Amino acid sequence: MEPWQTILLAFGGNATLVAVLAFLGKSFLEQLLVRDTKRFETDLRAKSDIAMERLKNQLQLSTIEHQVRFSRLHEKRAEVIAELYGLLVEALWEAESFLSPLEWTGEPDKKEKHRTAMNQLVKLYRYFDQHRIYLPQEICASLERLIDEVRSQVVNFGVYVDFGKSAINEEFDRKKLDAWNSGWKSIKKEVPVARQSLENEFRVLLGHAAASLAAPADQKASLSGP
C-alpha cells in the first residue's frame, strides 16, 4: 500500500483529510499573518522614530536659524538706535547753542551757528528716514515730533538772524526777540521732556529685544527633551 493511501485511511478518508489540510493551512496562514504583522509593526515603529527624529532636528535647525536672524536684527537695531541718538544729541547741542541768549567771545556768530544747526538737523532727519524701518511706529512718531519742534524753533529764529541788520527796526527787533525767547524756552523746557520720553522708549525697545533674544534658546532646550 502506498504511503498516501495509508495516511488517507488513518484519517478516515477524503473528508477527514480535507479537514486536516484546511486546519493546517489555516494555522500556517495565521502564523504568516502574525509574523508579517510583527514585522510591519517593527518597520512602522522604526520609520516613525526616524520621522520624529528628523522632525525634531528640523525644528531645532529652524529655531537656531530664527535665533541667528533675530540676533542680527537686534544688533542692527541697536546700531541704528545708537547712531540715531548720537545724531539727535549733536543736533540738540547745535540748536541750543544757536538759540542760547549767551554768546561767548571767539564763538561763531549766529549766522554760522544757524547753518550748523540746520545742517545737523538735516543729517539727523536723513539718517532717521533711511532707518525708520528698524523702529516701531510709536518711536518714529515721537522722534519726528521732537525733530519738527526743534527745527521749527531754529527756522523761526534763523529767519531774523539771516535777514541781516539793514532792515532792523523796532517791530523787527520785537519779533526777533519773541522768536528767540520762544526757541530758548522750547529748547530748555519742552525739548528735554520729549527727549526723556524718547530715551525711555529706546530703553524699553532694547530691553524687550534682549528679552526676546533669550526666548529661542529656551525653546531649543525644550525641543532637545529626553
N to C succession of SSEs: HHHHH
Number of helices: 5
What is the terminal separation in angstroms?
A: 70 Å
Coarse structural class: mainly alpha
CATH class of one domain: Mainly Alpha
Indicate the proportion of strand residues: under 5%
User: Could you tell me the number of beta strands?
Assistant: 0
CATH topology of one domain: Four Helix Bundle (Hemerythrin (Met), subunit A)
Average pLDDT: 79
Low-confidence stretches: 216-226
CATH architecture of one domain: Up-down Bundle
Q: Portion of residues in helices?
A: over 70%
Approximate shape: rod-shaped
What is Rg?
A: 42 Å
Short description:
The chain has helices spanning 3-10, 14-99, 110-131, 137-163, 170-223. With 226 residues, the chain is mainly alpha-helical.
Structure description:
- The chain has helices spanning 3-10, 14-99, 110-131, 137-163, 170-223.
- Helix 2 (14-99) runs antiparallel to helix 3 (110-131), helix 2 runs parallel beside helix 4 (137-163) and helix 2 runs antiparallel to helix 5 (170-223).
- The chain is built from five helices and no strands.
- The chain has 226 residues and is mainly alpha-helical.
- 13% of the residues are buried.
- The chain is rod-shaped and about 120 Å long.
- It has a domain at 75-223: Four Helix Bundle (Hemerythrin (Met), subunit A), CATH 1.20.120.
- Helix content is 87%, strand content 0%.
- The model is unreliable at 216-226 (pLDDT under 50).
